[in-house]
Amino acid sequence: PADRLPRITVFGTGYLGATHAVAMAQLGFDVTGVDTDLAKVEALAAGKVPFYEPGLPELLEATLATGRLRFTTDAATAVANAEVHFVCVGTPQMKTSHAADLRFVEAATTAVARAMTHDGVIVGKSTVPVGTAARLREIVAREVAPGVAAELVWNPEFLREGKAVDDTLHPDRVVVGGASPAAEALLRTVYAQPIAEGSPFVVTDLPTAELVKVSANAFLATKISFVNAIAQVCEAAGADVTVLADAIGHDVRIGRQFLDAGLGFGGGCLPKDIRALMHRAGELGAHRAVALMQQVDEINMGQRAAVVDHAVEACGGSVLNRRIGVLGAAFKPHTDDVRDSPALNVAAALHLRGAQVTVYDPQAGDTARATFPSLTYATSAEEAVEGTDVVLLLTEWEEFLRADPTQLAERTRTPRLIDARGKLDTDAWRAAGWTTRTLGRAA
Ligand code: UGA
């Protein structure tokens, strides 16, 4: 029965926290989502997800209707009514360095510890540099009221944007670090369904749990930069990186996923996580890790520069006053997130060089406009390619893969395409009159 299940708070209602709160309510728990941002809280309480995430609005509506889920800015009441407190706030990159900004994690942990009126477990989910959880334990010990037992454990999250609901309900693994037997039992109850479905439950110490998360993202980033480095060799040697990736991917030790060459990785996680790892590894004297992550970052940023160069070349050496159509603004399909988006980055770089850049994205138009108001935004692919000298495919939305190249060609000044994601059927585009260039294939 619901009254015997542990009651849950979730601090932070961004991509991670909102999804986690809704998923926990879906699993039958009583959940309160807490945020300092009143607008977010009001939106979620009214059944509106403040960002684009497929499947989440429907599940939010359904779980709100059960009465098991609510959102508030009142941390004290929420904490007083629960036993398990998830910390899901952001850890963005510092403006002045590669380090992670831990202000929000510290503030949320402090708020929970201060508000605890009875025993409970604080569960860190945010991505943090190794060693953070140990420091947060000191904060908890200092802030919690005498007689209240507050235990802090680490339980990293691996969800992908665009697949957040599914990843949260059916995780590849559950990792719990630094838990006492009682806290471990509590988390086994919280994750009973995924465990029953076969998700491995990995028990570790605190620093290992923190590092598992960072290493997973660093490995994914390394895979992408590896294939992008090979793509450069392919271009020079007249080989095809997509066929190559398929072929090496058949080896189960390698695996095909995350071997799509092209514009590289962006978003709110991979770029800042490898930089935070660089910074922390440096502090710890782990110089080989620093060197590896530096190369991964450099190769990745080099892909963006390469696409800008291709566009300049396509325009005959200068993009000044040339019309460029950009398809895609989100850092990947199925999201409206433009944080560190390679697509927007390239669009902005071309704009700075004097090009007239028109961007279209099926979902991220508004977030992109808010980030880069000086670019021109279209409401369709047709509109974006109108009168252009070159068209860039920068985010591989299905809508673009299905687009009719003949119709689009008619709208351009010169039907010239750069496929920076290697996903278009360029034979079909060529047959429709386009000249095409794909990253990772010979010109
Ligand atoms: C990433 C991880 O995949 C999640 O497991 C993790 O939980 C999350 O970060 C996080 O730390 O919160 P996400 O940022 O949603 O998830 O995006 P990914 O799907 O990993 O894609 C990252 C970037 O890599 C995108 O820009 C994508 O276009 C690019 N990418 C991906 C490639 O360039 N090539 C590929 O083969 C795959």
UniProtKB/TrEMBL annotation:
InterPro entries assigned: 6-PGluconate_DH-like_C_sf, NAD(P)-bd_dom_sf, UDP-Glc/GDP-Man, UDP-Glc/GDP-Man_DH_C, UDP-Glc/GDP-Man_DH_C_sf, UDP-Glc/GDP-Man_DH_dimer, UDP-Glc/GDP-Man_DH_N, UDPglc_DH_bac
Root EC class: oxidoreductase
Gene3D superfamilies linked: Cytochrome c1, transmembrane anchor, C-terminal, NAD(P)-binding Rossmann-like Domain
Catalytic activity: UDP-alpha-D-glucose + 2 NAD(+) + H2O = UDP-alpha-D-glucuronate + 2 NADH + 3 H(+)
EC identifiers of the protein: 1.1.1.22
Listed pathway(s): Nucleotide-sugar biosynthesis; UDP-alpha-D-glucuronate biosynthesis; UDP-alpha-D-glucuronate from UDP-alpha-D-glucose: step 1/1
Active-site residues, record numbering mapped to chain: 269
Domain UDP-glucose/GDP-mannose dehydrogenase C-terminal: 325-426
GO molecular function, one term: NAD binding
Residues annotated to bind substrate: 158-161, 213, 258-262, 266, 332
Keywords: NAD, Oxidoreductase
Any single GO BP term: UDP-glucuronate biosynthetic process
Binding positions for NAD(+) per the UniProt entry: 35, 40, 91, 127, 161, 272, 339
Similarity section: Belongs to the UDP-glucose/GDP-mannose dehydrogenase family.
Protein name per Swiss-Prot or TrEMBL: UDP-glucose 6-dehydrogenase
Species whose genome carries this gene: Cellulomonas soli
